[in-house]
Structure formats: structure tokens, C-alpha cells
Design a protein that fits this description.
The chain contains 20 helices and 18 strands. It has helices spanning about 1-10, 10-80, 80-85, 90-105, 115-120, 125, 130-135, 145-155, 155-160, 215-220, 275-285, 325-375, 390-405, 410-490, 495-520, 535-555, 570-590, 625, 645-655, 685-705; strands at about 110-115, 140-145, 165, 180, 180-190, 200-205, 235-240, 245, 290-295, 295-305, 315-320, 530-535, 555-560, 565-570, 595-605, 605-615, 660-665, 670-675. Strand 5 and strand 6 (about 200-205) form a beta hairpin. Helix 2 crosses helix 12, helix 14 runs antiparallel to helix 15 (about 495-520) and helix 16 (about 535-555) runs parallel beside helix 17.
């Protein structure tokens, strides 16, 4: 036995066979162990990491919805119309505005509670928050409100929250059959007067019971197309305590096969979470991540507690996906791995047995030729071998090596020719780099000019901030005295009511102009309010503002109104642009004359995009040299001009998403045309982005030159 093993291991054939099959066998065993470990451990860990990330995205989306509620109320509280109705105690108009916003934002309730009502409120949920609201703290989050309190807020809201409880396996036994509490996405924003005193509170809420929008929105965000394998189902659920109040988990497993969205009755609303999850999440406050049986199937699940305004646990948010597709992939991977390893082993064994006997004879022939060459017989060659493996290539290369020695000189000459070609390529590459450098220098010059403009705007911002402070103080005094004058005169002010209103309106316009100047120098720090208006009425209102200046110069205005499409604009800012264009037109006349104002619908490709307004004069016109720079900051041809009027106007219209164009001929006149969209598309300053795009283009040219 020992002798036979010695003979087996001492022959070259058997050694090659053993050395070939042993690594294959060890590799197969290693791959099998690795595949089993990866599919059981690593895959499970990845699934839990994914569902944890899904839960974080779902929770973050819910927080974003809460912040959006607060932003709606803050915008409403800061709006001019709301504050005007509040100051004038116009309850009818105030209720109409609140109703319109509640309808447009799909809120279940939106109301204004004055400070006295807040102090005397009997609503339990408000009583717990009144101290914080009186301290003018903005509140947004989730709240639990009982049916009676919902009916007190708005009759009939309590019925919307009603849910019949369904017996659920693995849930804690309960005698309750109905859930009449409601989880509400609620926001409360205190409203203060100009002196910081609390006037009241804006209160809004959206009932989450028996709703689908929130959970379906979160599910579509977290489990969009391509996030799960074929057949995988992602679900999101909101719990009030341990009851599902909003979910896209179906009550019946067959509902998954339907191509249409689940109806409210098909969803598992009213079912309850398992006792194990309830203990870990609602009692201990921990995040629960594991596989779980949810209603009718096994899911990879994640639960997280939801807190109310007082950090009290009121429910849970859940995200998860079905486990079955991943289990299928698990077994499929194991089977494919085992089959592939077995196939490789079989093929390898057959090839090794067949090819081992073809190695020995070629090796003997190669050894003989090598010995002859070592003895000086350099004309010998190995020739054709019977084998069909690497030894054939080795023999051929050995024969070729001898022939290559004779060809070395020829190759050197060819290398010299190739060197000349390379030098020519490098010369061409150097020229391309020079061109790219010129592009860089040109772009840097443009960047330097823009930086100088930015520096001027920075100085303008500092000056404007001081001017705004000095003007806003007397403007506030004027408004205060006007209010006092109206209060003191009472009914006696009615004959002059229009003049009083005009004074107040113009003071607000002064403030708006200062804010617009600040916004030009620091546009990223201001938010603009847009509304849908007719361009014709804006033009008429603007002409009233400049009528005195036009009459003094004996300028006649011709109005050609053809626009019918409403536009979405900031009225005061557009008026500022028109005032600037009309006064510029009158100045261009240098005396009496006619200024034409024409409005038209803005039509492109047969589609109405908005409206345009043209200001036309027959003045001295603008030279081609100046025409290219009229919108640049601080460029002016007037002795007393600042060079900001057209630049500010251009910035205002561009921030609306529109455009200003100009056509002019010297001694014939000028036409400025303003394009405004029916739906505003606010944009920011693109100067920095333009610089970066130019640098990127130059860098791409440079790289092409280097690769040439």
C-alpha cells in the first residue's frame, strides 16, 4: 500500500493531477462555505440595514409634512391681506381667506383664535399648550384629539376619525371595539402686532385617521420602482397607540395581485400590532427592527414611536417590505452556487485527466532542444508539437525568439520613425494646451469683472441697510399718526378717506421700494409674495402713480390694451419696473410728447405663456454701443443717474421667470418689452453658476488637449 502511494506521488503525471485537483477541491469547499455564510448572515444584515434606512426616510418625510404645515401658517400670518383684515377686524373677509386656504391645502380645519379666547379655552388639547403659545412659541407636530373636541372645532369632524377595531392575531386582547380618537397633524403659529404683543393663534390640522394620502406618498418615496425585487411589496403604516389608523397593508393577501390601488376598505385599518412590538416600541420607547408577521404575511419590519407636543408616546410609524422575494433569492442563490461549483469541478477533472498525458512528451522534446542550443547548435528549432496547450505557445515563442534577434536592427529603425511621430503629436498637444490656456485667461477676465460688480453690490447693500433704517423709522411714525388721526376724527374722516388711504398705501410702497433695493443687493435674503393679476389693471394703477410727473412734462400716454391672460407677479415690484420704464421714456422725450403703453398676450408655439407690456417712446433713442450695457449695474448716461434703475428692473423680472427686451434706433425712439408668465417661475442669480460652467468647459478642453 505504501509502495503504491509512493509510485503515485513520484511520477510527474500523478503530481500534476494531484496539484491540480487539490486546489480545485479546496476552492469548491471554500466557495460553498462562503455562499452559505453570505446568504444567511450578510444578506439578512443588509435587509435590516435597508429597512432601518427606509424607516428613517419615512420618519423624515412625516417631519417634513409637519414643517410644511407650519410654513403655510407662517406665510398666511405674514401676508398683507391677512394682517389688513385682522387690523380692520373684518371677520367675514378673514373667514373667507381661511376657508380658501383650507380648501387649497386640503386641511381638515384652519381657524384663528384670538388671545382672549386662548386664555379661556376649554379644549383639552389647547389647554395643555396655551402657556407655550402665550410665550409666542411656534408649535408643529402630532396630537391626539378626542371626537367631542373635534366636533367642537368643526361639527362633523369627529365622524371622520371613527374606526371599527378588528380582532388581530398576536395582538394584546382588548374589549374595545371602536377607536374614536384621532391622530392629527397639527400646527399652531402665534400672531403678534407691530409691537410684539400677542393677537391670537393660527391653528390648522389634518386628520390622519382613515386617510391614504400621507402613507401612500411616503411609500412611493421610500419604495419606488426598482427599490425592491420582483414581487416585493413595500408598505408604510401610522399607528394611534397600537391601532392601524392609516396604512397601505391590505387585509387580504390576494389584494397584492390587483393592479389597481387599494381602496380604503381593502386596507388593514382597524387592525392592531402584535404584543411583542407594542411592548418594545410603545412601552420601552425603542426602535424595533426584525422580521414580523404583519396581518397576513411575513415582512422585514421597522417600527418607531411617535411623540406628541409634550414628548408623550402616542403611536408608531412603520415601514417594511415582504420577505418572500428575498427568501426566494436566498434559495435560488444557494442552488445556483452549488450547481456552478459542481459543474466546474466535473469539467476540471475531465480536462486534467485528458491533458496530463499530453504534457510529458512535449516536455521531453523541449528539453532536448534547450540542451542542443546550450551546446552551441543555434540552428535547431523545436518545431510543431503534438500537444495543444501552453507548451505549444512556449515552443513557438522560443523559436520566434531566435528569429527576432535577426530582426532587432529593423525594429530599431522602426522605433526611430515612431519617435518622430510621437514628437509631432506632442507638438500638436502643446498647441491645444495653449488654446485652452487662452480660454482660461478670457474666462478669468470675465470673472474679475463680475467680482467687481459683486463688490459694488456689497457696498450698495451696506448703504441701503442704513437708508432703510432711516426711512422705515419716519414711515412707521407716519403710519402711527395716520392711525391716530383716523381714530380721533372718527366719521369726520370719511370725506378724506381716499386721500388717507392713498397716504398709507404710499408709505407701504416706500417700505417696499427700500426692501426691493435691499433685495437687489442681497437677493437671497428675501421672500416674495406672488398673486394672479391682470396686466392692464397693474398698468392703470402705475399710471396713477406717475401722472403728476407726466402732466408736469406735458407727456400724453396712449394705452393699447390687448392682454387677456392673467399673470402671477409681485404687484409692487412690477409697478416699480413700470414706473422706471415710463419715467425713462418721458425723460427720453426731453419735453412734451407721447408715450405708448401696449399690452398683449405672450404666445409661443400656439400656447399662451403669459402677457407682455411694451413702453414705447419717440425720443432720442440709444446707441448700439450703450445698448449692450444698459442692464449692467451702475451704468448710466444721465448726469444725475445712479445706473441702478434698469439693472434693478431686470433683476426683478428675471426673478419672476420673465424677461425684458429692448429695441432702439437713434433719433427714432425706443421700445422696452416686459414678458411675464401666467405662472411665476422664480429664479436666482446665475452669475456664479455661469462662471463654474465656463471653468468646467475650459477644463474639458484642457483635458482633451492633454489626451491628444
Amino acid at each position: 500500500m505504501k509502495s503504491s502511494w509512493y509510485n503515485f506521488s513520484s511520477t510527474l503525471r500523478h503530481k500534476l493531477l494531484l496539484l491540480t485537483l487539490l486546489p480545485l477541491l479546496l476552492t469548491a469547499i471554500g466557495f460553498a462555505i462562503m455562499a452559505a455564510y453570505w446568504t444567511t448572515s450578510y444578506t439578512d444584515r443588509q435587509l435590516y440595514m435597508k429597512v432601518s434606512a427606509d424607516l428613517s426616510v419615512a420618519s423624515g418625510t412625516l417631519n417634513f409634512m409637519q414643517q410644511e404645515h407650519q410654513n403655510i401658517l407662517m406665510q398666511l400670518g405674514n401676508s398683507y391681506e391677512f394682517r389688513t383684515n385682522l387690523q380692520q377686524n373684518n371677520r367675514h373677509a378673514l373667514q373667507g381667506q381661511l376657508h380658501a386656504i383650507r380648501q387649497s391645502r386640503s386641511l381638515d380645519f384652519l381657524r384663528f383664535i384670538d388671545a382672549q379666547e386662548l386664555n379661556a379655552t376649554q379644549e383639552p388639547s389647547l389647554q395643555n399648550l396655551s402657556k407655550r403659545l402665550l410665550l409666542k412659541e411656534n408649535l408643529t407636530g402630532l396630537a391626539v384629539i378626542h371626537k367631542d373636541e373635534l366636533d367642537q372645532i368643526n361639527m362633523g369632524l369627529g365622524d371622520k376619525a371613527h374606526i371599527n377595531l378588528i380582532d388581530t392575531p398576536r395582538a394584546i386582547p382588548s374589549n374595545r371595539t371602536v377607536e374614536d380618537r384621532s391622530m392629527v397633524l397639527r400646527a399652531l403659529v402665534p400672531i403678534t402686532d407691530d409691537f410684539g404683543q400677542l393677537i391670537g393663534v393660527l391653528d390648522s390640522g389634518t386628520i390622519l385617521n382613515n386617510t391614504t394620502d400621507a402613507v401612500d406618498t411616503i411609500r412611493d418615496l421610500v419604495y419606488g420602482d426598482g427599490t425592491l425585487p420582483e414581487g416585493g411589496i413595500g408598505t408604510v403604516t401610522l399607528f394611534l397607540d397600537d391601532v392601524r389608523i392609516s396604512t397601505n397593508v391590505p387585509q387580504e393577501r390576494e389584494s397584492f395581485k390587483s393592479s389597481t390601488p387599494l381602496t380604503l376598505k381593502q386596507r388593514a385599518i382597524g387592525t392592531r400590532v402584535s404584543a411583542e412590538v407594542r411592548k418594545e416600541v410603545l412601552r420601552k420607547g425603542d426602535t424595533w427592527i426584525n422580521r414580523a408577521f404583519v396581518v397576513n404575511d411575513w415582512y422585514i419590519s421597522a417600527y418607531k414611536p411617535l411623540l406628541d407636543f409634550n414628548n408623550k408616546k402616542i403611536g408608531m410609524i412603520y415601514a417594511g417590505f415582504t420577505e418572500a422575494p428575498f427568501t426566494k433569492i436566498y434559495y435560488k442563490t444557494l442552488i445556483e452556487s452549488a450547481s456552478l461549483i459542481a459543474l466546474i469541478m466535473l469539467v476540471s477533472a475531465v480536462l486534467v485527466f485528458k491533458k496530463t498525458q499530453l504534457i510529458i512528451r512535449p516536455l521531453n522534446k523541449i528539453h532536448k532542444v534547450v540542451t542542443d542550443i546550450r551546446n552551441g547548435e543555434t540552428d535547431h528549432r523545436i518545431g510543431q508539437l503534438e500537444a495543444a496547450d501552453e507548451l505549444v505557445e512556449l515552443a513557438e515563442q522560443f523559436d520566434v525568439m531566435l528569429d527576432l534577434i535577426e530582426e532587432r536592427e529593423k525594429q530599431i529603425r522602426q522605433a526611430n520613425d515612431q519617435l518622430e511621430i510621437t514628437v509631432e503629436k506632442r507638438t500638436r498637444s502643446l498647441k491645444n494646451r495653449t488654446d485652452a490656456l487662452k480660454q482660461h485667461i478670457k474666462l478669468l477676465k470675465s470673472t474679475r469683472k463680475q467680482l467687481l460688480d459683486k463688490e459694488k453690490l456689497a457696498v450698495l447693500g451696506e448703504l441701503t441697510a442704513g437708508i432703510a433704517h432711516e426711512i422705515n423709522n419716519p414711515a412707521a411714525v407716519i403710519l402711527g399718526n395716520m392711525d391716530l388721526l383716523v381714530a380721533e376724527l372718527g366719521d369726520a374722516v370719511k370725506p378724506a378717506q381716499d386721500e388717507v388711504d392713498m397716504v398709507i398705501e404710499q408709505v407701504y410702497r416706500i417700505r417696499s421700494l427700500i426692501n426691493n433695493l435691499l433685495q437687489y443687493s442681497r437677493p437671497g435674503q428675501y421672500l416674495e409674495q406672488y398673486e394672479h393679476l391682470q396686466l392692464n389693471s397693474i398698468s392703470d394703477d402705475t399710471l396713477q402713480l406717475v401722472s403728476h410727473a407726466l402732466e408736469k412734462q406735458q407727456v400724453v400716454v396712449e394705452r393699447n390694451y390687448h392682454a387677456t391672460c392673467p399673470i402671477e407677479v409681485n404687484c409692487q415690484q412690477v409697478q416699480q419696473v413700470l414706473v422706471n420704464l415710463i419715467l425713462n421714456a418721458s425723460h427720453a422725450l426731453e419735453g412734451p410728447g407721447v408715450v405708448t403703453i401696449q399690452t398683449d398676450d405672450w404666445i409661443e408655439d400656439g400656447e399662451v405663456k403669459g402677457a407682455t407690456i411694451s413702453v414705447i417712446d419717440q425720443g432720442k433713442g440709444i446707441s448700439e454701443e450703450h445698448l449692450e450695457r444698459i442692464f449692467d449695474p451702475f451704468f448710466t448716461t444721465k448726469k444725475s443717474g445712479t445706473g441702478l434703475g434698469l439693472s434693478v428692473s431686470y433683476g426683478i423680472i428675471r426673478r419672476h421667470g420673465g424677461d425684458i427686451t429692448v429695441r432702439s434706433e437713434e433719433e427714432l425712439g425706443t421700445m422696452f418689452k416686459v414678458h411675464l408668465l401666467k405662472t411665476a417661475n422664480p429664479t436666482g442669480d446665475g452669475g456664479v453658476e455661469g462662471i463654474l460652467d465656463g471653468l468646467a468647459a475650459a477644463e474639458r478642453t484642457n483635458r482633451r488637449a492633454m489626451n491628444a
